[in-house]
Design brief:
The protein is about 50% helix and about 10% strand. It is of the alpha+beta class and about 525 residues long.
C-alpha cells in the first residue's frame, strides 16, 4: 500500500468530529496562535518536546497501571455474588481513576497534533514528523493498554457499576468507565493504527531529514510505539470480525471518532487549543500575585494548578501541585531569627549558630548562594517546590503565576515551621520522583516535599496528613491537603488556617479572589472539566 493510499485511508476514517451541539467555551482574547501548527518552527519544536515528556509519563503510567491491575486479576473478575470490601473498592476505584487520568493526558496530546496531515511533509518536515510521532505513539499506547484493561474488566456487572459511579475527589465523572469501554475499540481508530504503522515505514526519510530521530527521547518513543502497536494489533486480530462489525455499526451513529476515550470532544479540543493559545498567559495576573505577597509568611503551604500543564499524571484530582513558601532571605530572617523558641533550638545545632538564617547559610553554602539570588525574571526566590527538574528554588513567576492558587498556613509554632524549612533545604537539589514513591528520600514528588518537610517527629508537632492509596501505592495527591482542610474547617484543632484563594475562570480569561468557603470544596472539582464558568 502506497503512502498516498495510507494517508487517504487515514483521512477517510479520521474525519473531523461533528460540530458541537452547544457552544464551545469562549476563547481568550490574545494574538497568540490557537493552533500548535501555527507556531514558528522553534516554538513548535519546544512545545513538541514538552509534549513528548507528557506522553512518556502518560504511556508509562498506563502500562504500569495495567500491570498493577493484572496482578489483581482475580479481584477484577470476581463473581457478582461476592461483594467487594471497602479496601477492595478503594483499590479498584483508585486504579481506574489513575488509569483514566493517564489516558486523558495521552489523548490530549493525540488531539493536539491530530492535524499533522494538513502540514505537508516536504515543505514542513519538522512539524509533519513530530505531529505523526506524537499522534501515533499516543494512539498505539491507548489501544494497547486500553483494550487490555477493558478485556480484564469485561462482563463484570458488579465491577462496572462500581467504576461508573462518579468520584469527584478522584476527578471521575458519571459513566466514565462505560464510555471508555464503548470507545476503546472503534473501527476508525483501529484502522488508523494499521494505516499509521504502514505510514511509519514510509516516513523514515522525512524523520531523518527533519532531524527528529536524533532528538532525546525519540528513539525510546519509537521502540515503545512498536511494542504498543504490536500488542494492539494482536489483540485486535484475535477479536475477530464480530467485534469490527459492532464497531462499524457504532461508527455510522458516531462521527466523533477523533475523541477515542472519555474526554468530551469540546473539552479536549479546548484543552489542546488553549494551552497553545494562551501559552505564558496564566489566568492569575502578575499584579494579583504581587498583591498577595504581603499576606504570605514563611512556612505557608500552597496548592497550584495550571489547566494545560499535565503535571502529576496518574495522581487524580483537581489540584495537581503543592509548594512550600519560604519567602525572601530578609523575610526568613525577620520571621525566625529573633523568635525565642527558634533561637533556643538553633543554639543546639552543630556549631551553635547565632541565628536560623546563619545556620542555613553555613550548613548549605551552595544552596544558600542560589537561594539568595534571583530567578530568570529578576524576582527574588521565595519558594521550594519539586518540579520535573528536581526540588528547586523558584520565584513567583514559576510558583504562583498560575491558573488557580490556594494558600494555607499551618497552625504550628515558629520553631516547627523553621524545622520544616530546614528539612526542605536538605531536600533541595534532589531529583523529581516520577514513581511517586513516598518511602524513599532519594527523589521527591511535589506533595512529598511538603509532607516530609512537615512530618511529625519526637521534637516536632508537624502536620498529620494521611497518605492515601492510589492504585495500590501509598501516596499523597495535592487534593488531599485541601480535603484535610475541608474536613477540619472550623474545628478548634484544625491544622490549617486559610490565607487566600485565587480562582481561575477560563471563560473571561481571568481569576478572582474567592473565600475559604469556595476553596474548601475545590478538591471535588473534576480534574478534566476545566472549561468552567
Amino acid at each position: 500500500m502506497s503512502a498516498a493510499s495510507l494517508l487517504a485511508a487515514w483521512l477517510t476514517l479520521a474525519s473531523p468530529p461533528a460540530e458541537p451541539t452547544s457552544p464551545a467555551p469562549a476563547t481568550v482574547a490574545t494574538t497568540a496562535p490557537r493552533d500548535v501548527y501555527a507556531l514558528d518552527d522553534a516554538a513548535f519544536v519546544a512545545q513538541a518536546r514538552r509534549d513528548l515528556e507528557t506522553l512518556r509519563q502518560g504511556t508509562e503510567g498506563l502500562r504500569r497501571l495495567k500491570e498493577e491491575a493484572f496482578r489483581s486479576k482475580a479481584l477484577y473478575q470476581r463473581g457478582k455474588d461476592v461483594p467487594y470490601t471497602p479496601d477492595e473498592k478503594q483499590l479498584l476505584v483508585s486504579t481506574w481513576a489513575a488509569f483514566f487520568d493517564c489516558f486523558i493526558s495521552t489523548e490530549v496530546v493525540r488531539q493536539r497534533y491530530w492535524d499533522f496531515l494538513k502540514v505537508p511533509a516536504f515543505t514542513q518536515p519538522k512539524k509533519h514528523a513530530w505531529g505523526f510521532l506524537l499522534t501515533h505513539a499516543a494512539l498505539a499506547s491507548e489501544l494497547a493498554q486500553g483494550m487490555a484493561f477493558a478485556d480484564l474488566t469485561g462482563g463484570q456487572a458488579q465491577l462496572e457499576v462500581l467504576l461508573n459511579e462518579p468520584g469527584p475527589e478522584y476527578g471521575l465523572p458519571p459513566r466514565a468507565f462505560s464510555r471508555f469501554k464503548e470507545k476503546v475499540v472503534h473501527v476508525g481508530t483501529s484502522t488508523q493504527l494499521f494505516t499509521g504503522d504502514g505510514y511509519r515505514a514510509t516516513l523514515h526519510p522525512v524523520l531523518a531529514k527533519a532531524g527528529v530521530l536524533n532528538e532525546p527521547g525519540v528513539p525510546a518513543l519509537f521502540q515503545t510505539m512498536r511494542q504498543d502497536s504490536k500488542a494492539a494489533r494482536s489483540r485486535l486480530l484475535k477479536r475477530g470480525p464480530v467485534l469490527f462489525a459492532k464497531a462499524a455499526a457504532d461508527l455510522t451513529q458516531d462521527t466523533t471518532a477523533r475523541a477515542v476515550f472519555p474526554v468530551q470532544k469540546t473539552v479536549a479540543e479546548w484543552m489542546g487549543d488553549t494551552r497553545v493559545h494562551r501559552s505564558g498567559k496564566p489566568l492569575i495576573s502578575r499584579e494579583q500575585v504581587l498583591s498577595l505577597l504581603p499576606r504570605m509568611a514563611p512556612g505557608d503551604v500552597m496548592v497550584a494548578r495550571q489547566n494545560w500543564f499535565l503535571s502529576n499524571i496518574g495522581l487524580p484530582g483537581f489540584w495537581p501541585h503543592a509548594e512550600l513558601y519560604v519567602g525572601t532571605p530578609q523575610e526568613l530572617s525577620q520571621t525566625f531569627d529573633a523568635d525565642p523558641e527558634v533561637k533556643t533550638w538553633v543554639a543546639t545545632l552543630p556549631g551553635r549558630p547565632e541565628t536560623f538564617t546563619a545556620h542555613l547559610a553555613k550548613a548549605f553554602p551552595a544552596k544558600w548562594a542560589e537561594y539568595t539570588g534571583k530567578d530568570a525574571h529578576g524576582d527574588p526566590l521565595r519558594i521550594i517546590e519539586s518540579i520535573s527538574e528536581g526540588v528547586s528554588f523558584t520565584g513567583v513567576e514559576h510558583g504562583m503565576h498560575v491558573d488557580y492558587l490556594g494558600v494555607l498556613r499551618p497552625r504550628l509554632s515558629q520553631v516547627d515551621k523553621a524545622r520544616a524549612i530546614l528539612r526542605a533545604f536538605t531536600f533541595q537539589g534532589r531529583p523529581y520522583d516520577f514513581n511517586f514513591d513516598f518511602f524513599s528520600d532519594q527523589s521527591l514528588v511535589c506533595t512529598e516535599l511538603v509532607w516530609k518537610s512537615y512530618a511529625p517527629s519526637k521534637d516536632m508537632k508537624g502536620l498529620d496528613i494521611p497518605l492515601v492509596s492510589v492504585a495500590g501505592r501509598r501516596t499523597l495527591p495535592a487534593n488531599e491537603i485541601v480535603r484535610v482542610f475541608d474536613a477540619e474547617y472550623g474545628q478548634p484543632n484544625r491544622q490549617f488556617d486559610f490565607v487566600a484563594f485565587l480562582d481561575g475562570r477560563e471563560g473571561p480569561g481571568d481569576a478572582v479572589e474567592a473565600n475559604a468557603e469556595s476553596f474548601r470544596y475545590t478538591y471535588r472539582r473534576m480534574k478534566w472539566d476545566i472549561a468552567q464558568e
